[in-house]
Amino acid sequence: LANVTTIAPGTPAASALASATAKVNVKGGRGHFFGLWVGNVHAHMVDEAALRREFEQYGELCVSKVHGVPPVNILPDSSSAFVNFCTYEAADTARHALQGRTVAGVGPLKINPSDYMQLYEEELRAHQ
Question: Which of these, 42, 55, 97, 121, is most buried using a 10 Å CB contact count?
Answer without folding.
Answer: 55
